[in-house]
Amino acid sequence: MVGKKFNLMAVVSDFRAGGAEKIVIELLLRLKETFNVSAVCIRDKGEHSNILEEQSIKIHLSYFKGRIHPQSLFNFASLLRRENIHIVHTHMYRPNISGSIGAYIARVPVIISHIHSIHQWDSKRQIFMDRLTSWVKDKIIAVSGEVKNSYIEKVKAGSEKVEVIYSGVEPQKYKVDKKPAELRSIFNIKDGIPVIGIVARLAPEKDHITFLEAAKIVLKTCHNAMFLIVGKGPEENNIKAHIERFNLRDNVVVAGYRMDIPQVLNLLDIFVLSSVREGFPISILEAMATGKPVVATDVGGNREAVVDGETGFIVPKRDSSSLALRILTLIENPEMAAVMGQKGYKRVCQKFSMETMVNETTKLYLDLLAKKRVRPA
């Protein structure tokens, strides 16, 4: 492949602030070393598209009026032909449907869909559409074993068609030498006070209310603990209303969306994810990369990331008492928390690095291209 590269196009709804979108961006930035990389957004570009454009990765807009709108499909297929695309890699539900059909119409040699979350099958219609289009895809990537199993069960796809490639992070990016005193000042958190945080989109599936209910319980024993909520989303007003209702205003900080996630995570003593459904959350990997113990709910791929009792704790969803108990266990046993954090960091380095994800994805691309005897133009 000296001198010539295969043309790869990623298909997304947009590049907004989200875990899946972050993974796609990081993946494309690294794949550009091996492939001619571009992307197409079928809704709008989103606030993070500039990260790719600044690295000379072209982003196209190909708006879809509906998942199988004929003119939208034709326009998208025409774009693929003009760009002479060899690989289409779609991400998340809408692009997985519309993008794969458009790629099939354009006769793109390799079509791959990426399943980032279990809850893309919320309705019979969604399941039907996935079944309808699964045959045009050469491979489906699932971000966890749980997501793979759910896909096979719901869509009735063959196991051999679905490959697990875990999302990854770059561990060194999250190792900050010292806790950021500036952030403690901004959030009005004194030294020596335990900080428990959640970094997630403020959406119903993240169940911040259970996080707040657990905070109430913890504060009965550890009166000075602080709870940090980082993210933005439609649940912000509801979360703030519950903070007032639970009388937690002195112990809970709603920090909004922040770009300095490594520094924020290093401020924490314990990371919590209280979701009621997940695929394979990048936020857990980020917390482990900063050496923090994790308390997460037993949903999606959480158990595949967190080893219960070794790198943190797994608790039942919507169970604030169990969540609070594990948080208190870590507060009261700082040496245990430190050991769990260290083991979590080692686990990320060994199993969930960005390098591993990029290598496995590249191998999948090249294997499929070789199987179909495709050559770069």
From TrEMBL:
Q: Which residues form the Glycosyltransferase subfamily 4-like N-terminal domain?
A: 18-172
InterPro entries documented for this protein: Glyco_trans_1, Glyco_trans_4-like_N
**Superkingdom of this entry's organism?**
Bacteria
Q: Extract the PANTHER family matched here.
A: GLYCOSYLTRANSFERASE, SPORE COAT PROTEIN SA
GO molecular function of the protein, one example? glycosyltransferase activity
| Gene3D superfamilies listed in its UniProt record | Glycogen Phosphorylase B
Q: What is this protein called?
A: Glycosyltransferase
Q: Which residues form the Glycosyl transferase family domain?
A: 183-347
